[in-house]
Amino acid sequence: MSEKHNHPKDEEHHDHDHCVESALQTAEALCLEQGQRLTKVRRRALELIWESHRPLGAYQLLAKLAEEGFNSAPPTVYRALDFLLNAGLIHKVESMNAYLGCAHADRAHKGYFLICDECHNVMEFDYQDIHSSLIDKAKKQGFELRAETIELTGLCAACKSAGEAAKKAAKDKS
Fold first, then answer.
1. Would 147 be classed as within a structural domain?
2. Residues that bind Zn(2+), according to the entry (predicted)?
3. Boundaries of domain holding 145
């Protein structure tokens, strides 16, 4: 399992500044390597996505950028998001129509997500064996795989534990 995106219950043990700074350093290195520019709006969009530690929708991002005086036209935000996606710096969580910072932007991979139904925390995990198996199975069927999205929903450990504690407390009262 790879890096977990922040859970509200973990806030006091988490260094947001380190995450954001690390993501920006990776972005700058990748852009330099690819001969791309990390413009002010692209950079700020990436910062806002990482600062949220939750999937952030395009219009939420648009509103935050507009508050800060950036061009508030939707095409500006979508171009920045497309750039960040194509550079591998963020992932799109399809079921939420939102964007999440990539925990492993320094290497090409497919992002798979565990999404908590309760707190909406999203955890990215990277298992190449799953990807390889899907490619092999698709090829055996003569299918050309063009896109791949794996999002598993359920309860994260913290919410599961809180739910069990609440059930126990309710049982103890009766």
1. yes
2. 116, 119, 156, 159
3. 109-174
